[in-house]
Every structure is written in structure tokens, then in C-alpha cells.
Amino acid sequence: MDIVKRNNVKVLGNGSKVIMFAHGFGCDQNMWRFITPSFTDNYKIILFDYVGSGNSDLSAYNTQKYDSLYGYAQDVIDICHEMNLHNVVFVGHSVSSIIGTLASLQSPGIFERLIFVSPSPRYINDMDYKGGFSKEDLEGLLEVMSNNYTGWANLLAPMVMQNPERPGLTKELENSFCTSDPFVTRQFAKVTFFSDNREDLKKIKIPTLILQCTDDAIAPSNVGAYIHQQITGSTLVKMKAKGHCPHMSHPEETIGCIKEFLEQ
After folding, report:
1. Would I find NADP among this entry's keywords (predicted)?
2. Degrees, nearest 5: CA angle 86-32-85
């Protein structure tokens, strides 16, 4: 299989050091366009789309494989192996933080640093752990996706973006949801929102940055604090940026946080 075509892999930049940007649920690599220009001088940049997202090869979608985040993690590993990438800086938005975690644990050596943008290892509340949603909340969200996909996109996009003064960004996210294959997107949503990867966090042994936004309805502040507690030696930065997509709504602050971590 042509992995580069499967995941619509793009390479930018002039540096020898590699940084890989991985988009979140319902998004694609284009969402990083405000961030990547600040890294092209010093890094080789790897962008890609998960199967079923963006301009990936939808024919490569396999229901059994992608019924778990491990299937997506394997694709990340495949890209790294295909392009002979090692000691990569991995930047993952939202669920990609966990996908990157799984890839790093399955294939030690491919990543030397992890950068989590608005991460969550578990979205469902569980006793003392507050993930932000009840199981019933998320089951209802999936039901709306099944019955009224456009309505679901209209509902979720503003909740995720959380920047009403910039309606263009909300509309872009909504359009991204709507142009994705509904069946694949619903499966990805189910896998994302019902996974529990809290135990995997303790296994991370490489430098990790956690970027926690203000007023994030998807990954509330206590989740960022929890991740920081679980990963020994990790760095937690509480951003002024609001919402769940700071790389789109507040790119300058996001770039500054990433650069500061990489310069340490």
C-alpha cells in the first residue's frame, strides 16, 4: 500500500530536525496552516490526514482496524517507518495526543518529544475523575450524529471552537465535519470519546508538553492537571487561549509555547 497516498502525507521545511503535526477529530492537516510557517526554517515538517479525514484515501478505511485508537497509531508508525523518521517531535491536537502516545509506546525511538494540544485521555466522568461528559451525554451526541449529521456539526463546532467573535473559524470547523464521511466520522467519534487511555500516560518516559486552554468544553482544566500528574517530568502550560483549538484561534501563543519547550 502507498502509505504516503493513504494518509496524504506532505513534507515542508528546510531543517534536518523533524516535527510531525497530527490533527484532531473531524479536522485535517490544513488546520495547522497558522502554525507551520514559524517552523519551516529550522525543521522538516510532516503533515498528514488520518484515513477518512481530509484528502486521505478513503478506500483504505477498514472498520475493524479503526475500531480502536491503535489503528490510527499504527498509521502514524507506518508513516515514520516509510519515511525513515526517528527522534521526531510529535505535536498532537486533542485525540492525536493519545494516538501519539500509543505510537510512542508501540515503537520506542520514533519520537523524542511529545507536545499535547488540548489533550484528554478519557472524556467520560469516572468516580473522582472528571472528564467533562457523562456516558449519556456522549451516547446522545452519537445518536444526533446518526439522525441529523448536519445538525450535529452545527451543534458541536461552536462548542469546540469557543471563539464566537471569530465565526469564520467555527464555520471552517463545521464545514470540516460536514465534508467528512458520516459513517467514518461517527466511528472515529465513538472510538475517541469512549476510549480510556489514562493508564498509558504513566508509561511515557520522554519530555512532554501539555497545552491546556481556558474555557475548553471538550478537555476541561482539571484534565490537563491530571495528565501532568501522571507523566513524570512533564510540563503543563495553562494558555490564555480559549476553546479547544488554540492552533487556529490563538496561533501566536501556541507557537510561542511550542518554541519555548523545544528550546529547553
Report:
1. no
2. 10
- CATH code for position 156: 3.40.50.1820
Which pLDDT value is given to residue 185? 92
User: Measured between alpha carbons, how far is residue 42 from residues 5, 16, 37, 48, 162 in Å?
Assistant: 26, 7, 10, 19, 32
- Choose among 53, 62, 55, 104: nearest CA to 208: 104
Residue in 245, 99, 93 with CA at minimum distance from that of residue 172: 245
| Strand pairing category for 111-117 and 88-93 | parallel
* pLDDT in the model for residue 224: 96
Q: For the chain, how many structural domains are there in total?
A: 1
Whether the Cβ atoms of residue 20 and residue 89 lie closer than 8 Å to each other:
yes
Identify the band that residue 153 occupies on the pLDDT scale cut at 50, 70 and 90: confident
Query: Residue 80 is part of which domain span?
Result: 3-263
Helix axes 149-161, 135-147, angle to 10 degrees: 130
Confidence at 159, pLDDT banded by 50, 70, 90: confident
Report the relative pairing of strands 10-12 and 208-214 from DSSP bridges: unpaired
Global pTM value: 0.96
d(CA 190, CA 185): 9
pLDDT value at position 71? 97
Inform me whether the pLDDT recorded for 54 exceeds 90.
Answer: yes
Cα–Cα distance measured from residue 9 to residue 60, given in angstroms and rounded to the nearest whole number: 14
What's the CA gap between 232 and 216, in Å, rounded? 24
Q: In a 10 Å sphere around its CB, with 0-12 CB exposed, 13-18 middle and 19+ buried, how is residue 235 labelled?
A: middle
What's the mean pLDDT in 86-98? Answer: 97
